[in-house]
Amino acid sequence: MKKPTQTRRRWLYVAVAAAVVSIASVVVVSFFPEQEKSLRRQIRTSVERAFPQQAAQVAESYGLTLHGDAPGFAAQPDPAAPSVVLVHGLDDPGKVWMNLAPVLADQRINVWQLDYPNDQQIEDSARFFHDQLKRLTRRGIEQVAVVAHSMGGLVSREMLTNPRIAYATAADGAAAPRVVALIMVGTPNQGSEFARFRVLGEIRDQWASFLHGRGHILRGILDGAGEAKIDLLPGSRFLTTLNERPHPQGVNMLSIAGNISPWDDRDIDRLVNSMREQLPAVGQDKLAGLGALLRSMGDGLGDGLVTVESTRLEGVEHRTVSGTHLSMIRNVSVQSDRVPPAVPLIVRYLTAKLSI
After folding, report:
1. φ and ψ at 309, to 5 degrees?
2. 76: CB partners within 8 A, 6+ apart
3. Per-residue model confidence as pLDDT tens digits over 167-206
4. Domain ranges of the chain
5. Bridge-partner residues for 317, per DSSP?
């Protein structure tokens, strides 16, 4: 019993720190979301223009990587084998696929991992994904399945359905591989309030990049200045537009949700009381609904960051597994022999749709 308690406390410390550091942003985005998004994009664009060499250096670290090899398409995929593209979410340091990628590779699948500037607005990330897919066509890949975690599902849906990106036209003309399946894991299709508190996720992302030799003093801005968090908020202009479009034709879709929260009622009360003591007066009114929000993530209703209802899409097959936002798809340690519950579900679905 001691270990789960310590884990819940760490979640609480993270939540308190994130709330205190980003409270000013929370207040601003509540009233002026699109204005903040525009300002953040202007900041990123200005930095790119002021530091073109550094921007190019950071850009080189993004792209599709064949699992088990260095970036830059150094390895040769097997054109006769099925291909799966893995798309991570917001501020993910790359560990989310640590359990799934090896399992898929063992099935004789070309496993491609997309790394992209995920803090930018989601439409920009979708355009980048589209450009990378066209590179796969030039390497003899004619069709792919996509597995996306969290915000990666929104990036994928935007890429497939945005008429300005015109994926369908590219696929029909054999300029891009045909996407035959899209599996979304913990994707907030209806948004997530926790997008407001993304500051510590960004710190984790940049630290991981530094440890892997991709660190740069400007990377925290060049990978996006936080525009994505505006798109992720419930009722955002981006989500409203995306959800009004029809689903992509010819794409089998599955949405997987986790239904265990890392905190209980006592943890939530402790968090709210702690924040009440530390936050300035301007942020106190935001605490009124915080307890209810956190409780909506638990009691079988969510994964700690995204509610089960938020993962649903009309007309899309939906499954739930036992796990939090991360534990349903990966383990904490590489030494663990635990099988994350979403992994076998994903493998079975891909086996059926790709005829492996």
Report:
1. -60, -35
2. none
3. 999 999 999 999 999 999 999 999 987 766 544 444 344 3
4. 32-263+308-354
5. 254
